[in-house]
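Worked example 2:
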Amino acid sequence: MTTTTHVQPGRPSPPSSSSALSAPMPAVSGARGGGRFGREVGYLLSGLPMGIAAFVLMVTGFALGVSTLVIVLGLPVLAGTLSMARYLARVEADHIAAVTGRPLPPRHREPASPEKGSGGGRWKIVRDPQAWRELAHAVLAFPLRVVTFSLAVTWLVGGLGELTYGLWSWSLPRDDGKDGLMDLAFGITGRGPDIAFNTAIGVFLLLTTVPVVRGLTVVQASLGRVLLRRGEL
């Protein structure tokens, strides 16, 4: 016995099970799920060593290339420096996409140069404005990474240290009868008030760690979005 399914005119037919299974699922970003805080901390802490290396390479390469332009050696040096800047920009773009869940727009590509025979294609990167923005990002991101790294470490390590202040404060030297931060700030003496005050600071730092780390991540990633992708946030 067979049954016939009648579809009323004007109504779309219900999707079959095969089409439902083959329909593409929306992409779920890993940065939106668990572990986002860990990725943000890793992004901020790894930014400083990466920023130091990028800053040294870019400043050295740019200074050497500009100073040797008169002897023609500067052109390949600048091309090599900009190639390194492009690679570092690609790494930063991958980091931003992983930590925020929002990939950067595709990199703008300059049209192919017709001057391949005269060496124009070989040094095309020197005329690429995007390559110079990537070099600028490597230089300008360094001081920002120093600040974000310092604040992230302060909130993480300072929060844990202050929260456990009562366990290790006995090892601190006490000069001139001073009883610690509480005595120095408010003139209140006593080991108990000093421990309570430092513990309260630790609780505050730990409670605000997630929003502070998230804000630092947004600031650091925004600089990459502005300079690496033509100002597109």
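The CA atoms of residues 118 and 205 lie 61 Å apart. The longest helix spans residues 129-163.
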